Amino acid sequence: MKFGYETTDATTYQLLLAKAKEMRKNPTQAESALWNYLAGDKTGVHFRRQHPMFGYIPDFVCLSHRLIIEIDGGYHLEEEQAQEDEERTQQLNQQGFVVMRFTNEEVLHHIDDVLEEITETLEDINLSILPTDFQDTNTKKNPSPREGHRVGIRVGFGYDVHRLVENRKLWLGGICIDHSMGLLGHSDADVLIHAICDALLGAANMRDIGYHFPDTSDETLDMDSKIILRKTIELIASKGYVVGNIDATVCAERPKLNPHIPAMQQCLADVIGTDSDNISIKATTTERLGFVGKEEGIAAYATVLITKNA
User: Fold this and answer.
1) Centroid of chain to Cα 78
2) Eight-state DSSP code of residue 56
3) Which runs of consecutive H residues, i.e. helices, occur in 164-305?
């Protein structure tokens, strides 16, 4: 698979992404009804609609809690489709995802029961991602297969640097910042995202960004680094890991980055599927010392924590 993708190859992912956008524009009545309750983090967690992953497009997914919700029409009752659904569910379970399935009729006519079941499942998952020592066994309800497992915690560190040049846009943290110069690189050269991706891959023991997204490939030329980050999240998810938190520092003499930090945090949080409070970004200078101080380049450092159920 290209770039070491372990979920979906690049060509298939782009096709799925285009299809997902169309599906979001034309939801079924049941999908619209449930999305009214899931949108805007109303459940306390962040859900996505039609988010391509592992070669297909689930109806709703919460990446932070590894929960997928599917709404099935009548054709899902057909034997061949039912068998395919079961095989896919087993594959997703092996990747650490919990899959919930509801029929159109359940969502449209018994929405309260559906929401109660989703809420209870999220509560079970919240229990399962805490170390056993912190769980009150007297308050547990409806134990899930993942409950009682201890969390595996891993830390990763990333560093990247890119040269500042004229006639390039300056991309940092997924947003474009108005500046007289931009960063030179094979992709859009977002030095902050690259440092974060290296930290994530390192924490999961999955090599580095250059291994999965080589700068010798035409397909990575001028690539949006948000795509690289999204694929990195899918890569670590293939080993059962989710992002705990990120702490990053950008070293730049100019432009002043503090006004842009909230936008960077929100952009990265949207790509990763987490809360912006889990992403810390700091900006500093080098007091005119070195290549950063001479405004020849920008550097970024990132430390991440990822977790995995044992």
Assistant:
1) 33
2) B
3) 191-203, 209-212, 225-237, 261-272, 290-293
pTM of whole model > 0.85?
Answer: no
Asked if residues 281 and 248 have their Cβ atoms less than 8 Å apart, the reply is yes
Region class of 210: left (phi > 0), else alpha (psi between -120 and 50), else beta: alpha
For residue 7, what are the β-bridge partners?
none
Rounded CA separation 229/213 (Å): 11
- CB 107 within 8 Å of CB 30: yes
SS3 60: strand
Distances from the Cα of 291 to the Cαs of 134, 177, 295, 305, in angstroms?
47, 20, 6, 29
User: In the CATH scheme, what is the homologous superfamily, with its name and number, of domain 151-309?
Assistant: 2-C-methyl-D-erythritol 2,4-cyclodiphosphate synthase (3.30.1330.50)
pLDDT tens-digit readout, 65-118: 889 999 988 665 667 777 888 888 888 887 778 999 999 999 999 999 999 999
CATH fold for the domain made of 2-134: Endonuclease; Chain A (3.40.960)
Strand, helix or coil for residue 246 = strand
For residue 180, pLDDT over 90 is answered with: yes
SS3 86: helix
Query: How many other CB atoms sit within 10 Å of the CB of residue 168?
Result: 17
Question: Who contacts 179 (Cβ-Cβ below 8 Å, separation ≥6)?
Answer: 170, 254, 255
